Fold each of these.
Amino acid sequence: MLAERRGGANVGGSKRSRVRATLLVTAAAACGLFFSQAMAQSYAFSNVVVEGNQLIDPATVVKVAGIAQGETVSDAALNDAVQRLTASGLFATVELVPSGSTLVIKVTENPTINVISFEGNKRLKDEDLEKVVKSESRRVYSAAQAEADAAAITEAYTQAGRLAARVEPRIINRGSNRVDLVFEIREGRVTEIERLSFTGNRAYSDRRLRQVLETKQAGLLRNIIQRDTYVADRIEFDKQLLTDFYRSRGYIDFQILSVAREFSRERDAFFLTFNVREGLQYKFNRITTVSEYEGVDAAAYADVVRIRSGATYSPVSIDTTISRMEAIALRQGINFMNIEPRITRNERNQTLDVTFALTKGPRVFVERIDIEGNATTLDRVIRRQFKTVEGDPFNPRAIREGAERTRALGYFETADVEARPGTAADQVIVDVNVEEKPTGSLTFGASYSVSDGVGFRIGLSEDNFLGRGQFVSLNLAAGADTRDSSFTFVEPALLGRDLKFRFTGFYSTSENDNSFYSTKRVGMSPSLEFPVSELGRFEVRYKISDDKVYKVSANSSSLLKADEARGSELTSALGYGYRYDTRIGGIDPNRSFSLRFDQDFAGVGGDIQSITSTGLATYQMKAFREEITLRAELEGGAVVTQGGDSRVIDRFSGNGKVRGFEPNGYGPRDLTVPNQDALGGNFFAAARVEAEFPLGLPEEYGITGGLFADIGSVWGLDNTLGGAIDDSMSLRSSIGVSVFWDTVLGPLRFNFSKALQKEDFDQEQNFDLTVSTQF
């Protein structure tokens, strides 16, 4: 403790006054009190002595105290020195004792931490907890820091869903002023979400809304699934997901009034209830475009509006339209245009009138873009996600879109983008702060199907190769009758443009896949892909491969034997592909359409001359308050040869095109030989429709049902052995039911099917189970 000394002040005089004695005594007492407070003792020390220190240098103690020799200090200054020494965390006790012209600083040092250990932890490993604590070995022990570390460990367990976790810091004296710091942990049980419910929802059921949230109810796999544990931060994310869900469906006044969190009596489960106010659903009515920018005609901007009157309101539709208009302004060289959507409500009929006003915004330029936090990723990989560069007019929307593209790369844990004032009034600086995460992966996979049996796969991939944003992967797969290996390299921005370069090398073999022959293919394929429209992409490619058919059974068709006799042949082909997918725009969350068309022209050298064309169109929609998902697919293909017969390795087998049949189970077949080989066909077509719906089970089980109906055919051969082989277009059709089980081990699908139309020689498959998972 600080030893204090007080000086007094004498009040009196040699002459006595004739006033009354009581007044004299009172005045003397008052004056004495005043002067004793006003004239507190001050010190000037010519020497400072430190006592009790063992490891800490005396000069360090004096420096922390902040008292210099010869400096005049007061009682308050001595008290401040005590506080500084205590706050340093180096000492258990501190006492300042003035002794004449010498100041004695008496300290008791805190012990040094010898070892930090954790006891009782099973769910969180030592290496994970070491990242949380701030105390360090061979540093001075601080009781306050140990308590803070215990709180940090408790918070780590809270984030892992164990709210009942308790952590106590203990010290073990090891002598020589050293201690071991031990954190005794009682992990407690996982705090699960036992029930997840909603109040105030009328448009969508609890079941549908639970599908939106990241948090899930505890189900059958409660010991494996991680999203059914209670994490407070995840609730805030769920609130945003729920808000986005409703507003994208026209409920512009949607609100989450509250989230009730009820802890179970056993303290091992939460009951969450989202109290919502849906409001009314609005639709678009009248859409207009006006120009308030002098010299700018609104007609060209009105032409890019794709919003239909009567369509459900969606913020994505507004944003997409603004982006299209900004692209026109960029092409016309018009800067600082601000496109303002002015929305007028018509509450009587629940519609919205939208006017896109072209106005002139402030003249603000981007001074520079600062990127921080990227230790591995090159600056240019992040910078190319922004269409804006230094010196361009500042467009807040373009900056936000660049931020979203940066996050979508998948290279970063966080990617925060903010704009701040620059060095001049008309300048802004864009700060991009990222936190990198591992982008490489080693995966082991397994699959199973009734027809192919068990298969295994191992893959090594890197999504951000050398920090350049390039993708590299090596995959090896083996099934009961197949072997596949491939190498892939992708440069997503060749020459700094939206031009994707892909190179693939492959080697594959198959043996007796419901047939009596084997195949081998080895080759490579480089390609370039680029956008041709907002939702469409185009690819040009070259493919070269060495292919052969071998090990043909003696009891097989003469067509297969002819393919074997040809030996290895080189296929050299130029091709192109077009992809159109409305999911890229994401305007309508309940409907999507995709189209794929490919053509490959073999004959650019090599031994094969043919044209192979394939196409696939898919439409999907959610109906009945989004409870039921409807899908429809139309697929077809053709191989046209020149100067020779097609090979079985190039023809279509129809595998998976019409359910209810085995692989190679339908299509042209040589019935004149004992093996009755399936030969495939030069043409195929198939149509499939499917409905997926809930079965009434708790949705946390991840089990839904489905109905499907397929129709299609495989037909056409260049050589029918004089008409001995029936290669006509005979339709096959089937119906069936499906059970989908979305497990953490992988999606399972059980198909029970029945062929309605078939040929006598077709091979049916009434049940199929597919499993796919990776670790």
Amino acid sequence: MSVRKPREVPDPGGSRALAGRDGTAGSVTGRQLVVAACWGAAVLVPLLFLGLFFAWPVAALVARGFVADGALDLSGFTEVLSRPRTWRLVGLTLAQSALGTVISVAAGLPVAFLLYRRTFPGRTFLRGLVTVPFVLPTVVVGVAFRNLFVSGGVLGFLGLEETLGGIVVALVFFNLAVVVRTVGGLWERLDPRAAEAAAALGAAPARVWRTVTLPALAPAIISAASVVFLFCATAFGVVMVLGGPRYGTVETEIWSRTKDFLDLRSAAVLSILQLVVVSVALALAARGRSRREQALHLVGERSAARPLRRSPGDAAVVSITAVVVGGLILLPLGGLALRSFQGPDGAFGLANYVALGTTGERDALTVTVWEALGNSLSTAAWACGIAVVVGGLVALIGSRRPRAPGARRAVSLLDGLFMLPLGVSAVTVGFGFLVTLDQPLGIQYDLRTSAALVPIAQSVVAVPLVVRTVLPVLRAIDPRLREVAGTLGASPGAVLRTVDLPLAARSLGLAIGFAFAVSLGEFGATSFLVRPDADTLPVVIFRLIGRPGAENYGMALAASVVLAVVTATVMMLAERLRGDDGGGEF
């Protein structure tokens, strides 16, 4: 009598032992070893990337601030923390972050309701328009609002030039999309029957909002507010352009102490202070994000959005959105575009754009603006590729649900580690590269002379955005789909290819757009690392602003418009690719 061999049941997650060929339970097959090796590599590659290009440079720079003559010296803490200037900068940083967060949430909630709970012609375009400011280079945002606030500008009468108020307005412009997309993504999945039942029982609209809708949205609001606070606290380009010599934050002080004075001790202490604030914000964001993902899992598919109605509530939301979008987004961008056509002599024309083919007045630049744009596009493409590979692997690992508590904590820790680059000064990362990467890991090659250094630094900043865009989509996939595919004989690779990838494809397209756009506009680390003959466009714009001459300033305006148009085009294409089936936190 023949004996049938036990059938192997493939495990798509690679986490369970399969029956061996001899029928012995728990034996390890060659296929299992391959699967385990693949998952191990998927974890190891991102960790090596984070360790080599983030943790090591940052730790080395901070350590240099606390080592004197080969011995540990912590007197820098006492010295820096005893300065009144330090606490003034901390106070300004917290003030701008708190104000920017509160106003962003208040302005973003009505916009989120309109874009995710109501349908109307042009809704997809308006979603893309609201997203564009988030990925605009910070230098462009600073130039756009500076053009409004200067004497003679449209809003010059408000006296917001080089003030806290002006910076907060620019930060709200920059972070509005975080609130709209994060809260809107949950809002469109809320079951409307609870609010309808409360209204049917006689509750006023304000009470329904306060007692039903707001508590349901709380996880998304907390997550969005924490991320906005983080972005406001670590804003660099906006503060550098709008703050001028009279206003500074912890971030700009790190840049000044490092680049202008080589005062690594003070920069190290300030970096640690900043990291404490960042860690608190990340912890709150992670908690809110976890609750938000649980809520998304519970409510499942999107609830049907309703057409706009002729009601007082919808009319108020439309009016608020019109003011926010018109006054906060279109006015600065439109003013920037209009002013870019005003030449040095005051006449309107194309003089500023014609000058982009030169090196500016008195040779202010080493490359032309068009050459800098080519450098930016090339660098961003490489950075985007690195970020998508590394971030995609992190999202893939983070989407798994191991049974063991220790494994679950490890997955959560991996996700949290890759959010840290969002909160550590890009200046610290850039200068840390110069300190550590002369011969990394003993390799006889000075990586600091390589053209690869800038895209690597930009990808460090872009990886968290890729993770936050792709991970929620992968986590929303029902694990039973993977189990069914595995039971039907699909290999782990086939499960990833046929289940995970198709469902995450559109969010991956959006992640590519985010990574490319963010890399295109990165300024903090790039300003440290870029070679003069390979300047990127944000660096060129900042240099033009800092040089005297009406022609240089006009070129800066025109170059900002060019960079804004390129960035907006990338994001509009990514948003169109995403459609209504994409996901992600942003």
Amino acid sequence: MKFNYKKILLLLLIFTVISCKQEQKDVSEVDIEQNSEELNEYFEEQFQKEVNESPMLQTRLGIKKNYGKWDDFSTEKYAADLNQAKTRLDYIDDIDPQNLNEDVRLSYQLYRQQLENEIEDYNYRFYSYPVNQMFGYHSQLPAFLINMHSIDSISDAEAYILRLRGFPEAFKDIIESLRIREQNQIIPPRFVFDKVIDDSRNIISGRPFEKSANTSTLLADFKMKVEALDISEEQEQQLIADAETALLDEVKPAYTELIAFLENQQKRATAEAGVWKFPKGEEFYNNVLKRTTTTNLTAEEIHEIGLNEVARIHREMEGIMKEIEFEGSLQDFFNFMRTDEQFYYEDTEEGRAKYLADAREIIDQMRERLPDLFLTLPEAEIIVKAVEPFREKSAGKAFYQQPAMDGSRPGTFYANLYDIKAMPTYQLEALAYHEGIPGHHMQIAIAQELEEVPNFRKFSFYTAYVEGWGLYSELLPKEIGFYEDPYSDFGRLAMELWRAVRLVVDTGIHAQNWTREEGIDFYVQNTPNAESDAVKMVERHIVMPGQATAYKIGMNKILELREKAKSQLGENFDIKKFHDVVLLNGAIPLNILEQKVDDWIADNNR
């Protein structure tokens, strides 16, 4: 008997497909919901495990458990986290995403991707600068105490003192991680050291560290919080005395040891800025760009996008020059905007107070118009504050701090007023929209307030999405009539231009061997910002490779998806519903954002 193997194989294949379809049909809606509920419970269980392992996350969430402790900063934590990620991935591997409902399937996709990235990124665990002028532990721990550690009782004050006493152990682990990085040829460029050492010395200056008319930053914070308590004077004085002892006996020696280590390591630092100098530096940078942009764009492609965007924005700026009848070149106009006194606040306490007041007014005006653009609004409040003196010299121009989950702390728009000439009036409007409303505060507060989303997603941070939304939010108000002053509209373009130049300079430094000075020069020649802005930005590129590329890539993708939806939906396009699609899943990678928008377009085209 002659067998027709091809026919048999075909029949087997058909039978397999039919069986799979039948098996899929056998998964009832009840089973799908039960599977989804079980996976959500697992997500919550793992999130709570993260919370329980992190005293600092507990504090950020408004939980006063382990209130006197710091996180584990040891290098052993890397290996523990890797093993945990592998265990979680093993669990996820046993789940069929087709047996989940749509919302949980998205959570599955995001969680799996996060785990795979974490496992892959273990190879680059020492490819960072944990002490740097932007966000190093030397400034983060004091900032955490000042901004996160509230004191509502004597026990809260005692927990604050315990954290002061924990500085030596925390800094011991941090110094060890710096030592291991040096063994792996990872040392910050020379310029970083002076800034970090200076900031560290600022923390241990003033009383009780030295005889001075000034009180140290941490003691001033502790005293202010304790003096607001309803306790006896004797209790108050005892707590302050205990804090002073902890500052002298634990905090000062910790900083002294860190400073000594950094001064010694500085001798071996070089001026080379880019990560190309690292072993496997090119692979590391490609990985960073992939994580930061959540795309597969290469360094060369990002560099080219940046050059094209710079040219486009320059043309739009020239249009504003014609509108105000400015005579001269674009460089002449840049110089005019840099130097004319009408565009700057007074370099006084009154001038700084006016800046903050004007920022609050802009945010309040925008808040009234939110219903024109959004269906979903955040419940959390937002405040505007100046960056604290101890870190203003090296901190960024502006940034946002998310609100507490329980509503005990509002969202905060921080403005760095150390160099008031770097904060021109014409950029304030765009900056307030970016950091406040409808920017980071809208997006982050709404994400935290989502009820049907697992907690791990509420705290996920995809830079291209988050910062892309922030930059998109600078443009959005123009579309409903804001930026009436052409100089403010120029400021909006200047802010967008700044992000476009970032694409050029970040890739220039880390993939094309640009020097720090070449990066600064490109900013100065192509933007109207103060040179001090350019210096800070280039130094940020150097210690945070890839991060600054996210803004423009993210904005471009959101605008691209909006135009796609407008084109395909025509009269059915609704900007409010589009914004819900973008915001109501929390922070997500750009490729998944595109999937969600495509699904929304398809649903509305039926």
Amino acid sequence: MHCLSISRAVLPLAMATLLAAAGCATRPRVATALPAPGSPPNKFADATLRQLATAQDERNTAALLPYLQRPDAQYRREAALAFASVQDRAAVPALARLLAADTEADVRRAAAFALGQTADTTATTQQALLTQLTTDPDRAVRRYVLEAMGRCATRASLADLVRLPAALAADTSAQVGQAWGLYRAALRGITSEAAVGRVVQLLPLPVPYRARLAAASTLARIRNLNLTPYTPQLIRAAQTDPDYAVRAAATLALGKSTDATVPATLASLARRDADYRVRLSAIRAMNAAMYAPVKEAAWEALTDANGQVALTAAEYFLTHASKESGQLFLAKAGKLNQWRVRATLLGAALKLGGSARDTIRQAIMQRYAAAASPYEKGYLLKALSEDPAAYKWLEEATFTPGQPVVIGTYGMEALVALRHKPDFPASQHAAFARTLQRGVGSGDLAIMGTAAEAIRDPQLALRPRFPSADFLLKARNQLTLPRDLEAWQSLQLTIDYLQGKAATPQPVAAAATHPINWAVVQTVPVGQKAIVHTGRGPITLTLLVEQAPGSVASFVELVRQGFYEQKNFHRVVPNFVAQGGCPRGDGWGSSDYNLRSEFADLRYVEGAVGLASAGKDTESCQWFITHAPTPHLDGRYTIFAQVEQGMDVLSQLEIGDRIDRIELLSSPK
């Protein structure tokens, strides 16, 4: 399933002092108290908590609501948190009452978090949050309320979030909440000039780290934003912030400025920042308009000590290089050792082509024949998608019988990418339609799903070539739910498209088909460690059984069965995630059951471990680890573990690297 990625800069003493004062934590840890000897391993020894978690898993609002009124504050809190996963707006009035009236701050925080997760934009919710902001005596509750206001904001209510009440203007906790609230609103496309101006004010020290991270992340992610007026503030943050994550996000935001100083700044950051994630962000921020002044820095980055930086540089050339010789890129690619960087640069060579295009295409095909790794072969197929003359060869490679499924997956993606090229010949359009029909009938999940998606792509305008959806119906009926959900859904959406019907809602397996295995949960102690043994070294995880019992139980069962042995990391996105656990090795594989999403009050910090999904409540066996904070995933993907050791190993992982085995350590003493 598709989701959907340490070194620190040497700081002068004054900056280090500011860092300590700001309370900066590069990788916040989940607070977990280990069980005392002889005590239950985790909180789910309590039968009432198991009942609550089961009701959450079943999405049973009626069963959960009475717990919001229980005398025991723990049960009220857990019930409120359950609604963060259930996300039923029918619970909003009860949650609003809990937020307004509960005597326990922990319970009110949980209610605010759950209200934010429902993303209810009605005036009732807006007023409940605004009232609590001005009346609640607890700083942490107010911080949660501000973030929830962002998740529930409308364009009309955004002003309430931009202007803090005067009494909170100097409250650092309120600054953090406001910054995250503005970030959550921006993710939903709700922002304003005043909001951007306030975000920029929250960017420099001595604003707390969490607020600076939110501010920088907001500026990096808002689309179609001209940040030229704020260039000095962005440069200062990119060059001097003590935390790599803030520097990286501010650096990325510099790509939205047209100021003449930006290209040189990005080139310098790409060469000199001590953290690979900042160097990577500098290259990612470079655009076509900057090509001449940043080109040399990008050339140097192709041999960066960190492979993720080198790959990002190759991707920059593939996307933005112009007026260059394809032969030049072919020669440079031949000197590179990292296969993914080399294949990407070969794609750039073929795209630029010129008189050497035939020579470059043949060179890529020769490398394909010699490559041992199916993943390298896949990337070479991606490179060939830059040349329409490679169409027939690509098709044959895609459908070669008996080859690893990974190759067919990359091949079909390459064929679709090729069809999108402006110079794809009209004389080949009919042949491409036949290729898609062949793909739908192939029986391979990835080829079927990708081909079906292309048929309904409005840019390709293929509907007239498929007067009947019978071949899609036949293919869909051969699939098994929930195991083949992603391919099933792609086929069904294309059937709806060809038949002129509204899109069929995604089917979600009921909790009864795979309930939480409480017997397994009660064998997993708080603080349970799991070591992922890879060819690059070990990565140690702490499982979060109290926050995600169903997900942890599933993971533990699969580990005990040896399910993950000799699986691959099939997806590595620089400065985002490394993802593995797919039984096919290409991201289209699954177990024969689905899990329900468990959205605890956790954040995707560096080293967070989440479950991949094809949508809410469709999690299975695939998981990913984040290279850096990725707050846009918060509350959307289950977090079930946290890396404790091995971030240096994670930064080296490459597509195709093996998971040799996963070891569950003995219970903590």
